[in-house]
Specification:
Largest sheet: 6 strands, mixed
Strand content: 15-25%
Helix content: 25-40%
Number of helices: 8
Structural class: alpha/beta
Distance between the termini: 22 Å
Order of helices and strands: EEHEHEHHHHEEHEEEHEE
CATH topology of the domain at 8-87 and 156-251: Purple Acid Phosphatase, chain A, domain 2
Amino acid sequence: MLAPAPDVWETPAPVFDGPPRPEEPVCLVGDLHGCAGLLGRLLAWRRQHFPEHRLIVLGDMIDRGEESARVIELLGEESAAGAVCLKGNHEEMFLAFLDDPVQAGRRWLRHGGLSTLASFGWRGIPSDSASRIRARDAVRDALAPGMVDWLRDLPLVWQSGNLVAVHAGLDPGLPVEAQEASTLTWGHDAFERQPRSDGLYVAYGHTVVRRPHLQDGRLALDTGAYATGALSYALIDPGAPEPERIVFGAVR
C-alpha cells in the first residue's frame, strides 16, 4: 500500500474502455514552472515511498517560478536515473531564445522568462537587442555542460500501454504518431471537448485546473504550482488493487 502524502485525493477511474494500464508503475507530475522546493519535496517522498514508479514530468519545467535553474539541475539528474521529462512550450521558447535572443527573446520574456534569467543570476530587464544577447550568453555560460543538448533532446510524447503522456494535448482525430509537434507543446482546440476513440488515456499539463482529475480519458495535472503552491501528481500502478490503482495528490 502506498504511504499517504500531504493533500492526497483518491479518485476512481471513470468508465473509459478499462482503466489506464501502463506497462510499469508511473508517477506523472504536472507543470513545475521553476518550483524547485516543491520538486525537492516530491522527489524525497517518491524515493521513500514509491521508488518503483517511473517519474514522468509533463513539461513546462521552467519560467514564472523563481528557481528554474535548480529545477533543470534536479531533473537532469533524475533523467540520468531513468525519469522521463517531456518538452513543453516554455522549454521550446527558452531554446528559441538561446538560438535567437533578439527576436525570440521578446516572446519568451513576456511569458515568464525573466524569472528564469534571474535564476541564472541575470539582473535587470533585457529590453534591447544588445542586452538580450548578453543575457543569452550569461545563461549559456551558467548552464551545466550538456544541458542545452539535454533540453533539445527532450521527447514530446511518452507512451506505455494505453497511457500517453504529453505536455499540452493531442488532436483527438489523429493517431499519436501523426500528431503535429505544435499540438503536443501548445495544445489543440478539440482536445478537451472530444474524447479519443482509440481507448488511450492522455496525461497532460499546460491548462491550469483546480484539482488534478481524470475525465473522459484525460488526466489533467497542472494546478498552477508557481501561483497556488500545489504541485500535483498522479500515481498509476497497473498491478495495484482497483481502489489504489490511480491516486491523485499534491505536495505543498
